[in-house]
Specification:
Chain lengths: 82, 757
C-alpha cells in the first residue's frame, strides 16, 4: 500500500492527520481513493490546483503517473514558470 | 522518469557541451530579426489604450460616443466586449487561473484597481487620431481610498479591493472579506522543539520592494481577424499556445480560430507569460475587420504589466554552536497586485530548500493591493524568501564564528533530503556548488578598505510540462526542427545541438524554427527553466524516431532486416556481411520518396522529471561611507546545470540572472506617491544595472546530471537571480558592521543606516 503524506496547511483539511494508506496504481485511482477516504483533498487534484509528488518526482497534471506498492506520495502546489 | 535510454550520460559527446555560433545570431546583429512591433499589414490600424488615472475607483459610466464620431476611429472596446466569468480556478495549460480576474485585468469592469488599469481601447487610422479619441472618451469615476502596502492592506478596515474575497487556507473560513486572498503553510517536524534545542536563535524582519523584469522590448502585437472570424495574432510572448488559450476564452473564439505566432523576443523573464494587449487588439480587429497593431510605451510597461511582488518577511532560525540548524521558521507576506496570485506558494516552498532540516515551517500570505497584478519573474517568489533566509544564515555564521560556506555545507540538502514542501529530493548539486565556491580563487582573494565579501545560495525546482516538437529530414540531407517553445535564451541552438549529437551530422545542417500554434500540439510556455529540459527531451525522442526510420529505409535498400542496421555518425551501417556498407543520411534522404515517402517524426509529451538547480554566489562590494554608494567589485556565480548543452548560453543565463539580482538588491523599486501613482516610469528613474555598473560576472558551471534527461539537463534560467539579493546584502552588512534588512540598498538607504543605525 502506498503512503500519502500531508504536511503544512493540507493537514487543516484532514483534522491534523498527516498520513494515509492508499490503494492506487496511478493518480487517477488516487483521486478516487481520496474521494472515498478524505473528500476534502480530492478537489485539489481534480481542479488541477495541485501536483502530485510520487517518490520524490513531481507530476503536474498527469492522471496516469504510476504509483507503486511502496510509493510515498505528497500533494504539492503546481510549480509556475518565470 | 521519462522512458529514455541513459546512454548519453556516459558516452563521449561531440556537439553537446561545445560552443557553436547561434543560429539566430546573424538576424539579431543585422537587425533582420522581427520583434513584436516589427510586423505590419496593409490597411493596418493603430490601437491605443485608455488607462485609469486612479489607484482605486468605481467606474460609474463610460461614454464613447464622442470618440466614435471622430473621423478615422474604426473601433472602440470596453469591458462589454469581453466575456465575464465566475470566480473559479480553471486549468490553462499548466497554470490554474481565475478567468474572472484575468478578464478584469485585461479590461476593468466594475472598478479600476490601479493607476494604469485598462478602461477602454481604440483603433484608428493613425496614432494621432487614436490619441485624440482616447481624450474624447468620458469616464465617470467614484474615487475610493486605496492601499499599496501589505501591512496596510491586511489591517481591519483597510480599503477592500474585492468585496467577495474570503481568505483561502484558514480553518474555519473567515466570515468577512479581506485583502488576504490565501494562506499557505509548508513544513514538518516541531519547530518549537527545534528552537528549544538551539544555542543561538536569530530572528529578523526584512522588506523587499516591487521590481520589474525590465525587459527591453515593450509588449507589442498585431492582430488580424477576418470577416469569417479567423484570427491571426503576431506577438512578443513566452507562450503562444498560452496566449491562444487566454484570448480564445476571453473573446469566445475556439482554439482553432486563432493562430498565434511568437515574434523574436527582447526579453521576458516571466513577464511575457500573460496577456495584456493581445485580447484588446483581437477585439478591436474583430470589430473593425482590419488588422490592429498595438504597442506599450515604457511607462505603460511599468504601470500596467506585471512586475513581481514587494514583500514583508519574517525569518527565525535556531542553531547549535557547531553550526547544526535545529529549526527554521518564516512568514512571508507578498503583494499580489490588484488580483490574487502572488508567488508566495513557491516562495514558501523554496525558502529553506537548500538545507536539510528536521524542523521547518514556512507560512505565506497572498495579499491584494492597488498595484498592477504581479506576473512571474525568474524563479517567481524564490528570491524574496531566500533573501531573508540566506541573510539570517550569514548573521548566524558571524555570531558563531563559522565560515559561511562551512555553515551551509554542514546543513546542505542532498539526495534523499526531505524538502520543506514534502518530497525527498533526487540527485542535486548543493554541496558541489558550495565546494566549488570554497575552492574558487575569488573566495580567498584579498579585500581592500571598505570592502567585504558576501555569499548566498539559492534553490529552484525547475519544471517540465506539455511539449511538442517535430523533425523533418529534407531530401538534400538537411534537417528541419519545429519547436513550440519560443527561444528566449538560446534554445534553438541547444535543440539543434542535441539533434546534431543524436544524428551525427553537423549542426549547420539543422535549421530550428519556432512554430506557430497551428503547426504543433500544445506547448506550455518557455519559462520555469523548462525549455532545454522539456523541449530537449522531445527533440531527442523525435530525432531517435527519425533515426529508426532512416535505418528502415537503409534496410529496405540493402534488402536486410532492420536489426542488421545500426546508426553511426550520420550514417546507416550494415553490421552483418563480409563487406562494410554505409549509407549517409543525405543518401537515404535523397531516396526517401522512393522508399516510402518523406521522413519526419513528432514527439508530444507531458515531460516529467525536472531536476532542481542550486547555485551559490560570491560577491565583493565596496561601500562609500560618505555617499552610501555600493559598488560591485567582483562577482562569481556558481550553479549546477546538470549538463550544459551550450556552455556559453548557460553562462549567459547565470550572468543575466546575477545582474538582474544585482539590480534588485541595489537600486530597483517601484516608487509610488500618495495618490497611488507610480513616479518612476522610465529607465532614467527606475535604475536597472548597465554595463558600467557591474564587473564581468565570473561563472562556474557544476554538472550533477539530472538522470531524467537524456543528456542530464536541469535548466538554468531561474536559479541565478536568487542568491544575489542576500549575497550583496550580506557583503554590505559585513563591510559596515551593520545588519541590513531592507532592499534595495540604494545610496540614501545605506547612508541612513550608516548615520542612524
Amino acid at each position: 500500500m502506498a503512503q500519502l503524506i500531508l504536511t503544512g496547511s493540507l493537514k487543516n483539511l484532514t483534522n491534523g492527520i498527516g498520513e494515509f494508506t492508499i490503494q492506487a496504481r496511478n493518480v487517477h485511482q488516487l483521486v478516487g481513493e481520496l474521494k472515498r477516504i478524505c473528500p476534502p483533498l480530492a478537489p485539489l487534484i481534480e481542479s488541477e490546483g495541485f501536483a502530485v509528488a510520487i517518490d520524490g518526482e513531481i507530476y503536474q497534471d498527469i492522471l496516469f503517473a504510476p504509483i507503486s506498492e511502496n510509493s510515498e506520495i505528497h500533494l504539492i502546489p503546481p510549480i509556475g514558470a518565470g | 522518469m521519462n522512458d529514455m535510454t541513459q546512454t548519453n550520460l556516459e558516452r563521449a559527446l561531440k556537439i553537446v557541451g561545445s560552443r557553436p555560433a547561434r543560429p539566430d545570431g546573424v538576424d539579431k546583429v543585422t537587425g533582420r530579426a522581427l520583434f513584436g512591433a516589427d510586423k505590419s499589414l496593409p490597411n493596418m490600424l493603430v490601437g491605443r489604450v485608455l488607462r485609469s488615472p486612479y489607484a482605486h475607483a468605481k467606474i460609474i459610466s463610460i461614454d464613447t460616443s464622442k470618440a466614435e464620431e471622430l473621423k478615422g476611429v474604426k473601433a472602440i472596446v470596453t469591458s462589454t466586449d469581453f466575456e465575464d466569468f465566475p470566480s473559479e480556478f480553471v486549468p490553462n495549460g499548466e497554470m490554474v487561473v481565475n478567468m474572472k480576474d484575468i478578464t478584469r485585468n485585461v479590461m476593468a469592469r466594475e472598478k479600476a484597481l490601479y493607476v494604469g488599469h485598462t478602461v477602454a481601447a481604440v483603433a484608428a487610422t493613425s496614432e494621432d487620431i487614436a490619441e485624440q479619441a482616447l481624450a474624447l472618451i468620458d469616464v465617470t469615476y467614484e474615487v475610493l481610498p486605496h492601499v499599496l502596502e501589505v501591512e496596510d492592506a491586511e489591517k481591519p478596515g483597510a480599503p477592500l479591493l474585492h468585496d467577495d474575497m474570503i481568505t483561502i487556507g484558514i480553518e474555519p473560513a473567515p466570515e468577512s472579506a479581506s485583502n488576504v486572498a490565501k494562506r499557505v503553510e509548508f513544513g514538518f517536524g516541531d519547530v518549537e522543539k527545534g528552537f528549544s534545542e538551539a544555542d543561538l536563535i536569530i530572528e529578523r524582519e526584512f522588506t523587499t520592494q516591487q521590481v520589474h523584469q525590465g525587459y527591453i522590448e515593450p509588449h507589442a502585437c498585431l492582430a488580424s481577424v477576418s470577416e469569417d472570424g479567423q484570427a491571426e495574432l503576431w506577438c512578443t510572448t513566452q507562450g503562444p499556445f498560452v496566449v491562444r488559450n487566454f484570448c480564445s476564452k476571453l473573446l469566445g473564439f475556439n482554439a482553432a480560430q486563432i493562430r498565434v505566432t511568437a515574434s523574436e523576443i527582447g526579453g521576458g523573464f516571466g513577464g511575457k507569460t500573460v496577456v495584456y494587449l493581445e485580447p484588446l487588439a483581437l477585439a478591436l480587429s474583430r470589430k473593425s475587420c482590419r488588422p490592429v497593431k498595438m504597442e506599450m510605451n515604457r511607462a505603460e510597461v511599468f504601470t500596467s504589466s506585471g512586475p513581481t511582488s514587494g514583500a514583508k518577511i519574517w525569518v527565525k532560525i535556531g542553531v547549535k554552536n557547531n553550526g547544526q540548524i535545529t529549526a527554521g521558521d518564516c512568514v512571508l507576506k507578498y503583494q499580489a497586485g490588484a488580483f490574487q496570485g502572488a508567488p508566495v506558494g513557491p516562495g514558501a516552498m523554496c525558502a529553506f530548500a537548500p538545507y536539510d532540516l528536521k524542523n521547518v515551517r514556512a507560512v505565506g500570505y497572498d495579499i491584494v493591493v492597488n498595484r498592477p497584478k504581479v506576473a512571474a519573474y525568474r524563479a517567481p517568489g524564490g528570491p524574496i524568501s531566500e533573501y531573508g533566509v540566506e541573510s539570517v544564515i550569514d548573521e548566524i555564521a558571524i555570531k558563531i564564528g563559522m565560515d559561511p560556506i562551512d555553515l551551509r555545507l554542514k546543513n546542505a540538502a542532498k539526495e534523499g533530503t526531505i524538502a520543506p514542501y514534502g518530497p525527498k529530493l533526487g540527485p542535486i548539486g548543493m554541496i558541489e556548488t558550495l565546494e566549488a565556491a570554497k575552492s574558487h580563487p575569488h573566495y580567498s582573494a584579498p579585500l581592500g578598505p571598505n570592502q567585504a565579501r558576501g555569499v548566498a545560495s539559492g534553490f529552484w525546482f525547475n519544471i517540465g510540462g506539455e511539449t511538442s516538437s517535430s523533425i523533418t529530414i529534407n531530401e538534400d540531407g538537411t534537417v528541419g526542427l519545429t519547436l513550440g517553445t519560443p527561444d528566449i535564451g538560446g534554445s534553438r541552438a541547444s535543440m539543434a545541438m542535441m539533434a546534431s549529437e543524436e544524428l551525427g551530422v553537423p549542426m549547420e545542417l539543422i535549421k530550428p524554427i519556432i512554430g506557430d500554434t497551428n503547426s504543433l500540439g500544445f506547448n506550455f510556455l518557455t519559462g520555469g527553466s523548462r525549455a532545454t529540459f522539456s523541449t530537449g527531451t522531445t527533440v531527442v525522442e523525435s530525432t531517435r524516431e527519425a533515426i529508426e526510420e532512416l535505418k528502415k529505409r537503409a534496410a529496405l535498400l540493402w534488402e536486410v532486416s532492420l536489426d542488421q542496421v545500426e546508426w553511426f555518425e550520420g550514417h546507416a551501417r550494415l553490421i552483418s556481411g563480409d563487406e562494410p556498407k554505409t549509407m549517409s543520411l543525405a543518401q537515404i534522404a535523397k531516396q526517401a520518396g522512393k522508399t516510402g515517402g518523406p521522413i519526419m517524426a513528432n514527439c508530444s509529451m507531458n515531460v516529467t522529471g525536472a531536476g532542481p538547480s542550486l547555485g551559490t554566489h560570491i560577491v565583493d562590494v565596496e561601500v562609500d561611507e560618505e555617499t552610501g554608494q555600493v559598488s560591485i567589485i567582483r562577482y562569481t556565480a556558481i550553479q549546477d546545470a546538470g549538463k550544459a548543452i551550450h556552455p556559453a548560453y548557460v553562462e549567459g543565463q547565470m550572468q543575466g540572472g546575477a545582474v538582474q539580482g544585482i539590480g534588485w538588491a541595489l537600486n530597483e523599486e517601484y516608487i509610488y506617491n500618495e495618490k497611488g501613482e507610480l513616479e518612476n516610469t522610465g529607465f532614467l528613474d527606475y535604475r536597472i544595472p548597465v554595463c558600467s555598473d557591474v564587473p564581468m560576472i565570473d561563472t562556474v558551471i557544476v554538472e550533477v546530471p539530472n538522470p531524467n534527461h537524456p543528456y542530464g539537463v536541469r535548466g538554468v534560467g531561474e536559479t541565478p537571480i536568487i542568491p544575489p539579493l542576500a549575497a550583496i546584502s550580506n557583503a554590505v552588512s559585513r563591510a559596515t558592521n551593520k545588519r541590513f534588512d531592507e532592499l534595495p540598498l540604494s545610496p540614501p538607504k545605506v547612508l541612513a543606516k550608516l548615520m542612524h543605525g
